[in-house]
Design goal:
138 residues, mainly alpha, single chain, DNA polymerase, domain 1, globular, 6 helices
């Protein structure tokens, strides 16, 4: 309220699964794009599906990305995270939540890339600590 922004807390009482289904059903998107996004979001449903939008935090998003990065290639995780971020940005635009929990996207995107795939990120000069619970470097 200090910034003059008011979001009704009851608006965010929809689960991530329900909101992502509504987001995927919106008109005007190509069928192939919708199928790609549906597949990407399905990878996050086991961890985030039952969580209310207002209950999503950057830490919870980071956990979901970390879990995904254990079983998928960095490029796949980046694509999946892109769809996740789009769903959460749409929730902000619909006034369901005030801020996206994926707002720390630069760190999240760099954390999903492994040092093996992107060795220049492992240099001491460019390394900084990631706020994730895993303690991995960005």
């Amino acid at each position: 309220m200090a910034r003059g922004l008011y979001i009704d807390p009851r608006a965010g009482r929809v689960t991530f699964a329900e909101w992502s289904d509504r987001w995927l059903a919106r008109p005007g998107k190509r069928e192939a794009s919708t199928a790609r996004d549906r597949q990407a979001l399905a990878s996050f449903r086991p961890h985030l599906g039952s969580v209310l939008l207002i209950g999503l935090t950057p830490g919870l998003i980071q956990e979901a990305v970390d879990l995904r990065s254990k079983v998928a290639a960095p490029a796949t995780v980046a694509r999946d995270f892109s769809a996740l971020r789009a769903v959460l940005n749409a929730a902000v635009n619909a006034d369901l939540i005030a801020r996206s929990p994926a707002r720390t996207s630069r760190c999240l995107e760099s954390c999903i890339r492994s040092d093996r795939a992107y060795p220049h990120w492992s240099s001491r000069r460019s390394r900084k600590r990631c706020p994730s619970t895993t303690g991995r470097s960005c």
